[in-house]
Amino acid sequence: MLAAVAIGTLVAVAxxxxxxxxxxxxxxxxxxxxxxxWFRGLAVVAVIGFLLSLPAFPYYTRSQLASSQHYPVTALxxxxxxxxxxxxxxxxxLDVTATDVNxxxxxxxxxxxxxxxxxxxxxxxxxxxxxxxxxGQYVVLCLEYCGIAxxxxxxxxxxx
Amino acid sequence: MSNTTAQFVRTAYRDSASDQTAKRxxxxxxxxxxxxxxxxxxxxxxxxxxxGGMHTFQPGLxxxxxxxxxxxxxxxxxxxxxxxxxxxxxxEGPLNPTTAIVACALILVGAVLVAIxxxxxxxxxxxxxxxxxxxxxxxxxxxxxxxxxxxxxxxVLGWTIWCLQMLGGVLTRYGGLRGAFAWDLVWSPxxxxxxxxxxxxxxAFAVLVSAVDGLLAxxxxxxxxxxxxxxxLNPALPLDPLWVKNLTYIxxxxxxxxxxxxxxxxxxxxxxxxxxxxxxxxSAVLAVAWWATLAFVAIAYFHHLYMDFAQPRAVQYxxxxxxxxxxxPPAVVTVFGGALLVYRSGFRWTLGSMFLYVGMIxxxxxxxxxxxxxTVAFNIYFHNTLWVVAHFHTYLLEGALLFVLGWVFxxxxxxxxxxxxxxxxxLVSLGxxxxxxWLLLGWYLAGxxxxxxxxxxxxxxxxxxxxxxxxxGIILVVGLIMCGIEAIRLARRPAHRxxxxx
Lengths: 160, 502
Ligand SMILES: [Cu+2]
Prior knowledge:
The structure holds two protein chains of two kinds.
Chain A: H1 2-16, H2 24-53, H3 62-65, E1 69-76, E2 79-81, E3 85-86, E4 91-98, E5 103-108, E6 114-120, E7 126-131, E8 136-142, E9 154-159
Parallel strand pairs in A: 1-4, 3-9
Antiparallel strand pairs in A: 1-2, 4-7, 5-6, 5-8, 8-9
Chain B: H1 2-12, H2 17-51, H3 59-90, H4 97-120, H5 142-174, H6 176-180, H7 183-187, H8 189-195, H9 202-233, H10 241-261, H11 264-270, H12 284-299, H13 313-326, H14 328-342, H15 351-373, H16 376-382, H17 386-416, H18 422-448, H19 462-492
Helix pairs in contact in B: 2-3, 2-4, 2-19, 3-4, 3-5, 3-9, 3-10, 3-11, 3-17, 4-5, 5-9, 9-10, 9-11, 9-12, 11-17, 12-13, 12-14, 14-15, 15-17, 17-18, 17-19, 18-19
The structure holds copper (II) ion.
């Protein structure tokens, strides 16, 4: 939708360009005034957007994660070692790592929508905090290119 | 038709011997760059058609082609921007042609090595060659990894030579960093005006920022290349995967970004020449915008590591903030300035001017797609899905590439004094913009539904969308072929000269 507005504006400007020409000096000052309004407006939107996005950052400290139940997830070419069942409506943490190369853990709910993802990197543990709200069969796909069978690398677990 | 071209022939035609050499070097870069891009468009379409189920690639071949497509596209687009900036700078100050030829030759040798590695050796670790992937669980022989790394080293070396040459040229011509950055214009404008000096033209900022950020990217690339090369020679060498990943993306992200910023210079120079006596000059705002670009392009790469929770937390916040801030210079200065320049300007629509203008639209649309992706809250859903593929193809295909094509047609139109007919313009628009938008839409739609990127075979609804998107891709290729034919037609016309007006 934003894209449509942007395209529309630029196309509208383009359409004025074929009429009679106006001297650059005539449009320069109103143009610069408009630019400073545009700049300020954009700055306000950017600051608000940034602040609104902060609570959604998925990074937690060890102590914040301490109260949740932890489950290990290990990615390797081309499979995931992880629990077959995870509890519903419970704060859980997946401790994700990899043994060979970089992989990604992309979690898709029973409707096929991504609900969370995290990278799996050898030598590091990425702790993904989750609350799974829909019961049923979830799918895990690898979301970091990892070799010839990358597209076949998947797992599943049940939430109940 | 003839009177519409007279004005820019008069303002721009130059014919000295050194200008002829500079032009030849520009065409060496842009010609080889566009050749690479053209071949890779076809390879890309072949991959998309395979994803759409129109034919089959074995996964090994698919991923080798994917690696080649990514690497060669980066190289091809970079070459176009490099040639363009190199030529534009020779209008300002001298540059040694031999150095430029050496840099270009090194990069082309690198491209050949990458092609050998991927096509003969079957190397397929993606153009990001994310450690430890090039070494562990591979389906290609070890020599292919070595040749690929050697190829990347040649590219980085050629790139670094070019950056050094451009930086040297800019610093010499405009009086050091202070002059090149237009420091005095920004901080003491009255004093600066009193000296009677002129600030560098807008395109000089593109040169400066590309060279400085390019050296940063090149150094990171060299460092990671050497580390991986050492690991290739001695498999027992331990490397930290997170450290390598950071370096890889400083290199990859910055270089990819610069390939978009470099051809912007074509907009600064050529767009005004299609207007009625309008000019794009350097203001303090423009200078500050490029300072911001210099800083934010260099640190925005952190957004590639949002999903690495082991990364220090602070840089995740910096990554989002820098990515937002990087959007300001294009939105407030360049695209806004471009629109203002065109607004009621008596603009002449030719193939060249159309490409330049639509390139700005593509840049904005790709930028909006990127802004969603660099917001951590959305990155959780978009990271490594086809959404990412959608936004950078928008940037590159309907932004950077159009700027380059705009420049090419501007040069051809200027030289021949002829433009393309309305029918050709309409057909090219339908093919390049229509087919392109159709192709891109497929990635946006699939990405919004979480279809992963870099999949030889995609889960539903990837294949159905891929099939439809391929049709757009075919139309796009037809449009690009028409462009090529039209370019040859214009190039074969005799050079046009307005002696009396010069
Ligand atoms: Cu994997």
